[in-house]
């Protein structure tokens, strides 16, 4: 619901790294994403965009299917600032699984995380919809808030746009988010083949070490991998590898490996025919107890709980 006319310190201080944006740009330019975005928009009438982590500008503003009501709100400084805050709150809540939040006007925005291994790289974003029929009481409350903020807005145009907002029932919308979750997992998978396409000659040597390490983990996560073996695989000393990897990802090699395995396990847990013990060993854990501890530490729930809620 944001536009470029709204300025906030959040936009400049929380921008993702250039490398992170490059990978996200490559994903958004891939034929797979373009085909899915077109199909999603045709089926739902909703906009869809990939938003890099900590990029709170309106990822949906130039997308077909964007809500005119949101665009009008974004022309006011207060409405724009409120939406930036909501986007930041939504990102914090959606780090591990899809989440939705409602803005002060009652509209719903949703973010679905795209995780490569244990690293959060971006979100699929959609929304700008209502989960109930638009009503005069809610619209009046919104306009009163805007006037209290001192915002100048064309109330007639705003009212017309509000009552034309798309409405979904909660069950239907939840089903759409589950489809987006599956697509996010697919994008994470193809990112492993997209990332090495970056020019290694122009890349920083330390970036090359981390990139090769991520690829090594992605290909061998179900095997026993030691820190020394990983460092050797990328032609780095163990000490240097530890330092560079943590600086680039924000977590240790061991934690990244565990998170990669847990992400793979989450996907396998959707298959009711696979036992938890089978999934534990298939994803590289040495024991069921180790699997259970790692899974709960990373997701906040046990594998069995995750499966039952899925």
Automatic annotation (TrEMBL):
**Species, as recorded:** Thalassobacterium sedimentorum
Q: Do you know which PROSITE patterns this protein is assigned to?
A: HTH_ARAC_FAMILY_1, HTH_ARAC_FAMILY_2
Which UniProt key words apply to this protein? Answer: DNA-binding, Transcription, Transcription regulation
What is this protein identified as? PocR ligand-binding domain-containing protein
Species lineage: Bacteria, Pseudomonadati, Verrucomicrobiota, Opitutia, Puniceicoccales
User: Could you tell me which residue ranges the HTH araC/xylS-type domain spans?
Assistant: 211-309
Keyword Phosphoprotein in annotation: no
Source organism's superkingdom? Answer: Bacteria
> InterPro entries, alphabetically?
Homeodomain-like_sf, HTH_AraC, HTH_AraC-typ_CS, PocR_dom, Tscrpt_reg_AraC-type_HTH
Pfam families, per the entry: HTH_18, PocR
